[in-house]
Design a protein that fits this description.
The protein is 35% helix and 29% strand. It has 138 residues and is α+β, with helices and mostly antiparallel strands.
Length: 138
């Protein structure tokens, strides 16, 4: 596969090319099986990650097109398509549940970190008051 970094995804998607928009954190390509379906992979901490080594790209995790008629399943590693086996419907359902769990966990942890960060000035203020009181009552 070839890769193209650009800001906006073009209207016409060429086969064997993955288009990557860093500003919009999205990659798109035609399904590697040749069925002509467009595959969109959002680049987020809870979806796909993209690695660029200066010459080639890799996407992680694998791409399972379970909602397409072809049900293709593959990895894109160093601009090469590495085919993976078909999954049973039970495996697909488990994979989807795992994806939902991972997303929920990520956003829950992110919310907790934001809550802690938002409380930090209050905590520092309280610690400051306690230190003053310690000095006063020594």
């Amino acid at each position: 596969m070839k890769h193209k970094f650009l800001e906006f995804i073009p209207e016409h998607i060429e086969p064997n090319t993955i288009y990557i928009s860093i500003p919009y954190a999205t990659a798109i390509h035609k399904c590697c099986c040749g069925c002509n379906e467009e595959v969109v992979t959002p680049l987020t901490p809870s979806d796909w990650s993209l690695t660029f080594n200066g010459e080639s790209i890799s996407l992680n995790p694998s791409i399972g097109n379970w909602s397409f008629k072809c049900r293709s399943h593959y990895w894109i590693k160093n601009n090469k398509v590495i085919w993976a086996g078909d999954w049973s419907q039970e495996q697909v359902d488990n994979g989807r549940m795992n994806d939902l769990y991972r997303k929920e966990k990520y956003y829950k942890e992110k919310k907790n970190i934001n809550n802690i960060t938002n409380r930090k000035p209050k905590v520092n203020f309280i610690i400051g008051i306690l230190n003053i009181l310690k000095k006063l009552f020594k």
